[in-house]
Amino acid sequence: MKTLMLIMLLLPLSSFAWESKVELTEGLEMKLKVSCEAGEEFCMDLCQEELSCVVEAGSCKNCIGANSFISHFYREVGRLFQSTQRALTEKDAAELFSSGSKFVFLEAQGPYNIYTGVGDLRTERHFESLCQGQFFSRPIVLAKLDRRSRVERASHVICHGDFGAEIFEMSHAGD
Amino acid sequence: MCRLLFSLCILSFFTIAQAKESRTLDINPLNFSNRADCARDSQKPTRSVFFIADTLDVGKSLLRAGDLLSRQDTFTAEGIKRYRFTLQSLSKLVAEKLLKGQLPLLNAKLPGYVDLVDTCKDGCFEMDELIAQAWSGSLQGERLNFSGSHMSCHEVKDFAALYPHLLDSKPTKDSLKALGQSMAAGSEHLVECNIDNPGDLSVSFYQFDLRHIDQKLWDKVGFDFWSSFNIYFSWAFRHSPEARQMALNYHGLFRQVNLEELSFFFSNGCNSLGRPECSKDFLNTNSLRELSRVSQDADLAKLQVFMPSPDHDHDDILRQDDGLGREDLALDAHETATAWAKNFKDNMAKTRGFIRLKLSQSLSQLKFVRRGLEDRLLTDAIRELEGVRSADQAKRAEAFTFCAELTSATDREISFIRPKLAAMTDYASIWNYSRNIHADIEADLEWSLSTFAPQLLAVCEKLRDEKVWGEEDHPGPEHFSAWYQSFHYKKVVESAPTTEGASYLVLKNGQTGKVETFCKSALDCGKKLVTNLIDLKIASDYASSLLSLDGQIKQLSATTSMGERMACKMYDPWFQSKKAGFEFLKDIVLAGVSAATIVPIYVDVSLAQKKVSSLQEIIKDGKVYYNPKFDRRSVQKSLIVDFGPLLGAPCAIGVSGDARVRPPSYLAFEGITLQSCRDNERINVTAESPEQVENAVRKLSGCFTCTISLASTVTSAGMLNPYMRPFFYVIRGVVKLVSNLRSPEDIPRSWTVDPNAVSRTLKLNGGEIPKSCVRKLSRGEECIKDSCVENIATSLGKHHKLVADSISVVKGGESLVTVGEKSFSVTTPRRNCSSHSFKMEDFKQVLR
Question: Which chain A residues are Cβ-neighbours of B511 within 8 angstroms?
């Protein structure tokens, strides 16, 4: 019985396809660290490595301080900015990052959020509302940059669950 | 009173601080100028600027980054210090590279630059490339060569009495003494820039001075210098290898900072940062001085920018013409300079936030109404309007208010919204700014201005022609929108609830999930749409001036309004001088003519300052400029004929063609005077269409005077021998000349004060500024009785940046110099001590 419970506990951890985490380097450059399960093709498609990849964030011009889009985003996330729940296939997800487009990664407590208080639970909740069902936690919003490194739109959200991560398309209610 | 208390506080503070060692400051001399000279200076570039950097948002971001890195201790504070150090060092680097010709000026002489300025108004990739090439030295262009120059940087902690030129036109004994005392404790008020200075974590306030610059050459290139400096600084902050080195491991975060919206430059004094122009942008940006006077806790909604009517800016400038032009920056309203800067930047951030919110809200609602209803709104609104003939009282009132608001908003005289799409879409950069939130803005505007407004306006006009509304249909102000009330009733009362009934357009609240009524009828929706158009117009007017749409740091051109007034031709600094010369010459000519006439005719002709009666708006290259329209009178004339000598009657009759000019009552006329003036001249003090100015009704204005002068029969000028009359004119000419030239504010006068010289003078005169020294110090000179002492004191300042407390001169021996607790000995020649060149090593510290 104990063995069965142990197997049940370990099952979700051992069955993830891939997952991701935003990290900052010592030089305060942001990156997305992607970890893949052995045999999972996502990392191979993304960076020709088997177990992990690093996606470097773009440098977002004017994103810290008085940025219309970023302030609009943090105030309206979960309300006007929503997940479409349309998931990308792993192939499309890998192509998203390797297509040459640059992104910045927006999190509830990330360095771009200068609009709500540190540890503000409401922001956490609004962010969490982007991720539902099986993939319910740790949302990371991908905001696409234009040619001049200015933030263009919140295009996708990475959501995590017990079975790894998925990337969903995002929508803005006003459009 | 306020200023007096402020000075007293400073005085008491300095009494305590006196024992400390005083140092000289590497700052420019202070230029005092009266109104006319300040106006003249406003057309020339400044050599001293203030720089405010808002570091609060950078701090917040660093705090979050520290969390991610699990580094909580001093990460944020160290990061802010590094951010400030980067700003200080990079400003100095960019300025000195430009001054020394290591960077070309960004002007028409730089190949390809002008074309790019025209094509990418809000910055573009190609412009970044061009600047990168210029930075690397691979582009030719105009280069400066101010050898020996540099830019000094000081952190302004406290204004103390270090900026008397921003408050007064002329140096006085008291202001010089207070300045000297502030200098004595200079290191507490004005600190040389360095990384270790902790200060306030949310704001930094600096003074940058360009030192040892040739003034004549500077006047030609200074404006190009500052505009180039601004552009290079923004670029270098993000892209230059030097900035990367300065920022160390914080560069990854710093280069993402919205530097342009978190920083602000303004000139220290009357000279300008940018060439003054009579444009909406220039006037609006400079109206930001108002932000320095408003307390953080005050109701910002009362500021000009928050007013529903956007045409206040030129009203203000037109009405200012009697002021001194020395805007009160309320420097003494806060305990420290940092507190002042904090108040200013907070107000600036709030104002910018308000504009962004207005832009965003009005665009969202415009889109919501248009996309939600499209042509249905138009047909329904027309139907509701047409049905007004048989409608009940409430519906009739609603139709009336809708038509009144639509007519008012599209009225040419009010000029809120031009019915031309071009005028609105010229603000291309604003649409670009908002496009990432709201797509298809032009389409929404096109529909609103070219379809919705004209079609409904035509129906309103038809109904008005049919006289469908009677007096009883005119509703009270509470039935109108706030903007309409503000404009037509001058005060706003709470709006009455709109027509009860079924919801016409609903909005689902995403957070609560509830359905809310957005508008209750087509006309109600129409009113909301018109309000949004007005909000959009106001916000976009200010957005182009206050938000950094062009990717440059905003700058308040000068601390006074003289630049705007000169550019809009509201003030002529030479007028008083011209008037004085003209009147003197006139009297000399009349002196010659008067000898030949039998009847004494006293003519007075005086130059009248041209008055701007209105400002005509001109849209050029997407910018709104103002073209001043003048009141045509330029000469005031009056004439007096004294009939005394001819008729033997004690009567003189005077006529003038201007109600503002009374016929002169010259000395000899004593008696009873009857005078009648009529003024039918109307001055339009609003920016309206030029036609209105042209068609202004002009009727006869002037004065008629009759003086029954008993004296005239006995001693009046009329009885004077014709040979004596010329003397009357000559004397009058001289008296008037002296009086005209004495004008304290309108004949250009300036004074230069070297703060270091004042500091030395004060120390070596026992803590007092002798009255006899005021004139010398106001010429930028020292005022120390003994020229040998003066030479030693100046040399000590030059080589060691110290201000001597006392100097005991021993000619042909060792003179003793004391500075705070330090002492120096200096070998002093027996002869020619005052012209001796003391070197750095001549000053030997004496160990006590």
Answer: 79
Total Cβ atoms within 10 A of residue B495? 13
A window 33-92, beta carbon within 8 A of B: 59-69, 71-72, 79-80
ipTM of the complex: 0.90
Nearest CB partner across the interface for B261, out of A60, A66, A150: A66
Partner B contacted by A112 (CB < 8 A): yes
Residues 6+ apart with CB under 8 A from B149: B96, B99, B100, B210, B211, B212, B213
Q: How far is CA B28 from CA B79, B106, B151, B177, B270, in A?
A: 31, 26, 10, 18, 14
Torsion over CA: B570, B576, B577, B578 (sign): positive
pLDDT single digits (tens) B289-300: 777 777 666 665
Contact between B703 and B654 under an 8 Å Cβ cutoff? The reply is yes
Question: CA B668 → CA B167, B596, B665, B706, B713, distances in Å?
Answer: 43, 20, 8, 15, 10
| Subunit contact B360:A72, Cβ cutoff 8 A | yes
What's the pLDDT tens digit per position in A31-86? 999 999 988 889 999 999 999 999 999 999 999 988 888 988 898 888 878 888 89
SS (H, E, C) B668-732: CCCEEEEEEEECCCCCCCCCCCHHHHHCCCCCCCEEEEEEEEHHHHHCCHHHCCCCCHHHHHHHH
User: φ and ψ at A169, to 5 degrees?
Assistant: -75, 150
In this structure, what token pair is assigned to residue B377? 């709104």
**Where do we find the tokens 């930001």?**
B288
Chain A residue numbers with beta carbons less than 8 Å from the beta carbon of B259 are 62
Provide the residue range defining the domain that includes A76: 2-172
Separation CA B172–CA B832 (nearest Å): 33
Question: What's the sign of the alpha-carbon dihedral B131, B132, B138, B143?
Answer: positive
- The whole-number pLDDT of residue B433 equals 61
Q: For chain A, what is the domain count?
A: 1
Whole-angstrom Cα distance, residue A129 to residue A123? 10
Q: Which residues of A touch B61 (CB under 8 A)?
A: 64-65, 111-112, 114
Residue at B709: amino acid letter: S
Closest B-chain CA to A62: B258
Coil, helix or strand at residue B120: coil
Residue where the block lists tokens 């074309």: B115
At position B744, the amino acid (one-letter code) is: P
Contact B755, B30 (CB under 8 A): yes
Q: Which residues contact B28 (CB under 8 A, 6 or more apart)?
A: B47, B48, B209, B210, B211
Residue B598 CA to chain centroid, in angstroms? 56
The structure tokens 């001399």 sit at: B29
- For residues B586 and B564, give the distance between their C-alpha atoms in angstroms, rounded to a whole number: 33
Distance CA B625, CA B615 (A): 9
